[in-house]
Amino acid sequence: MMADELPTNCRTPIIAEYDGTTNPLEHLSCFENAVLLHKYTDGIKYRVFITTFARAAQQCRKLRKTELSLFAIRQKDNELLKEYLQMFNTTELEVSFVTQEVKASALSQGLLDGDFFKSLAKKPVSKFYTLLALAAKYINMENA
Questions:
Q1: What is the C-alpha separation between 96 and 92, in angstroms, rounded?
Q2: 0.70 exceeded by the pTM?
């Protein structure tokens, strides 16, 4: 794969960098759509794709924290949901090989007893990215 020569007109597609805080499948889909017209070989796609990762996502091989670190994060009194999620996501980027279910469980267990927590108590969510999408709705309500 690395033997494929980059064409002289090869450019990185213009898509948002992947920083690890959003759905990786959406990033991959955006990349695939962006390079579709270029007819790159798989080797060139690989070499170009890795340039679309933000610095934090490129350093995913460094094992700094464990999944237990996620369970230690708690939403503080008077801390907005958005601020709690930012802290959680920052730590989550430093933890390797954690399932969506574990991330969702850790995030849920760290919440204060507010509207978002109560909605999860009534209807639990086991997928992390689904939980983030639902949290975004509550963040919008906080900002209103």
A1: 8
A2: no
Q: For the chain, where do the domains classified as CATH 1.10.1200.30 start and end?
A: 67-143
Rounded Cα–Cα distance for residues 144 and 119 (Å): 19
Rounded-to-integer distance, Cα 144 and Cα 138, Å: 10
- What 8-state DSSP symbol labels residue 75? P
Topology given in CATH for the domain delimited by 67-143 = 1.10.1200
**Is the distance from CB of 119 to CB of 84 less than 8 angstroms?**
no
Q: Both tokens of residue 122?
A: 């009534």
Give tens-digit pLDDT for 71-110. Answer: 999 999 999 999 999 999 988 888 878 999 999 999 999 9
109 contact partners, CB below 8 Å, separation of at least 6:
71
